[in-house]
Design goal:
The protein is α/β, with parallel strands linked by helices. Among the domains are: 90 residues, Arc Repressor Mutant, subunit A; 116 residues, 3-Layer(aba) Sandwich (D-Maltodextrin-Binding Protein, domain 2). It is built from 12 helices and 12 strands. The strands form 2 sheets. Strands 3, 4, 5, 6, 7, 8, 9, 10, 11 and 12 form a 10-stranded mixed β-sheet that branches. A two-stranded antiparallel ribbon has the order 1-2. Strand 7, helix 8 and strand 8 form a beta-alpha-beta unit. The longest helix has 25 residues.
Length: 311
């Protein structure tokens, strides 16, 4: 009896979107448009007769059916990769599986990957998004990235501080000249980094300040995108908002009051790591050093009380 297979291009698009928890990130990895990923997911949902994603804010989350199918689909696709590599002779060493937080992947890593792949065309990158402790990750990975140390073997490569950020048009309409002015704004929170606002406000001497409203998102990426769209004021880790500040999409508030954050670390769990893994780690440390030097530059636009008062 012939197999009743689902449309495999749709499975591939869904699995990529599910790993990243983002249609946009899947589009970047697969080199297609956001709309193409969305269409493939709908095709698969129609074939399955089940919803795999549900809308949440500006993004999507996996349904219970979606989570189960993602687990099975990832395992099967990884098996196909291993089988094809074995047959073609490319070998495991040419595939590099990276496990990293979603917002870091979207906002810092993906924009830099073309430079690495251009310099190393023989290395295939596979990204999976997670903030789980590495000891709880079930899928195989060659290299993990997390904020904070992962035991004694991880290497720090990217330093960060944190300040509020907002859309310039929003600030023109409702200026923020001093910290208490934040009380007139909607504050944007991320459940995955729920302590950032409380800790920054405490450091700034206003631990009980509340905005006129609160919007809460699950991933940090959604809160930052909401700030870009003018929905309110977010709390922004410097490395993850530097490009938006440089492009004028966001303005940093009170840069004289940065809150230190844990560095990003990279870990290679295998003592006998392959050459591609070691090459990527060295590249990551170099890129982090370059990013740190840019973040330390006084050229990035910002807004503090003196600037706002002069507008």
């Amino acid at each position: 009896m012939p197999r009743s297979l689902p449309p495999l291009n749709a499975v591939k698009a869904f699995e990529c979107a599910g790993r990243h928890r983002s249609l946009s990130a899947a589009a970047v990895e697969l080199g297609v448009t956001h709309g193409a990923i969305s269409r493939q997911v709908k095709i698969l949902e129609s074939w399955m007769g089940a919803r795999l994603f549900a809308k949440e804010g500006r993004g999507v989350v996996l349904t219970a059916d979606g989570r189960q199918f993602l687990k099975d689909a990832t395992k099967l696709l990884d098996g196909i990769v291993v089988a094809s590599e074995r047959l073609s002779g490319r070998g495991k060493s040419k595939v590099l599986r990276i496990n990293a937080p979603q917002t870091f992947t979207m906002r810092w890593l993906i924009p830099r990957l073309p430079a690495f792949t251009a310099a190393n065309p023989g290395i295939e990158i596979r990204l999976s998004a997670s903030i789980e402790p590495i000891e709880k990750i079930n899928d195989h990975f060659d290299l993990a990235i997390r904020r904070g140390a992962m035991g004694t073997s991880s290497k720090p490569f990217l330093a960060e501080t944190c300040v509020p950020v907002a859309n310039r048009r929003l600030l023109d309409a409702m200026p923020v000249n001093q910290i208490v002015d934040l009380g007139a704004h909607t504050l944007l929170h991320a459940e995955s980094a729920a302590l950032l606002w409380p800790r920054w406000l405490e450091k700034a001497g206003h631990p009980h300040l509340n905005g006129k409203a609160q919007l809460r998102f699950e991933p940090l990426y959604h809160s930052l995108q909401a700030a870009i769209d003018g929905a309110g004021v977010a709390i922004g880790p410097s490395a993850l908002v530097a490009a938006d500040i440089a492009a004028g999409r966001l303005v940093s508030l009170f840069p004289q009051l940065p809150m230190a954050m844990d560095d990003f670390h990279v870990l290679i769990p295998d003592a006998d790591a392959t050459l591609p893994t070691k090459l990527f780690q060295r590249w990551l440390v170099t890129e982090g050093r370059l990013s740190n030097s840019i973040l330390d530059s006084p050229q990035l636009p910002f807004r503090d009380g003196a600037q706002a008062a002069s507008r």
